[in-house]
């Protein structure tokens, strides 16, 4: 019978990653809540803001966030009711629609970003030197590309189609 090593360093690595994620989320969530946003609302808005024409196909947005298409539809419905984004039909394919950041959505991000960036600095980036930060970002991308290969769906140069 094999003995299971409870002190395996792989468990420690995974535990540290989970603890850091939960801690960062808990520390950063109040900024979003104050602005009337959830974490997924913010993620959706910032992904649109960082996309060409501030727009993504709904399927690509779902793939980038890791939500199902129906889950993304619910998020987009909520953000659309708040006039932070709008849906636009594709002129060449009636089955496709786009989510586009509105001016109100961009303004909402502009109110949230200063505090969010200050939190990122205080809790993350300022804790690392330039070389540490670059190496850490490269490591995160390497892991992300394996566990969420469609996280950049719809981006220029992305190999993911956004379709499951």
UniProtKB/TrEMBL annotation:
> Which Pfam family, an example, fits this chain?
MarR_2
> Signal sequence: where?
none
InterPro entries referenced in this protein's UniProt entry, alphabetically = HTH_MarR-typ (IPR000835), MarR/SlyA-like (IPR039422), WH-like_DNA-bd_sf (IPR036388), WH_DNA-bd_sf (IPR036390)
Q: Which residues form the HTH marR-type domain?
A: 10-145
This one is known as MarR family transcriptional regulator
- Taxonomic source organism: Nonomuraea longicatena
Q: What is the lineage of its organism?
A: Bacteria, Bacillati, Actinomycetota, Actinomycetes, Streptosporangiales
């Amino acid at each position: 019978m094999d003995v299971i090593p409870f002190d395996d360093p792989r468990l420690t690595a995974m535990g540290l990653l989970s603890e850091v994620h939960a801690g960062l989320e808990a520390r950063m969530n109040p900024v979003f809540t104050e602005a009337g946003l959830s974490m997924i609302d913010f993620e959706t808005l910032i992904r649109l803001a960082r996309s060409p024409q501030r727009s993504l196909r709904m399927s690509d947005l779902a793939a980038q966030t890791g939500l199902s298409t129906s889950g993304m539809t619910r998020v987009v419905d909520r953000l659309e009711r708040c006039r932070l984004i709008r849906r636009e039909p594709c002129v060449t394919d009636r089955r496709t629609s786009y989510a586009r950041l509105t001016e109100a959505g961009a303004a909402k991000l502009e109110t949230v970003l200063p505090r969010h960036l200050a939190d990122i600095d205080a809790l993350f980036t300022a804790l690392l030197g330039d070389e540490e930060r670059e190496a850490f970002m490269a490591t995160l991308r390497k892991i992300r590309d394996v566990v969420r290969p469609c996280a950049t769906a719809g981006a220029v140069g992305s190999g993911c189609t956004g379709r499951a």
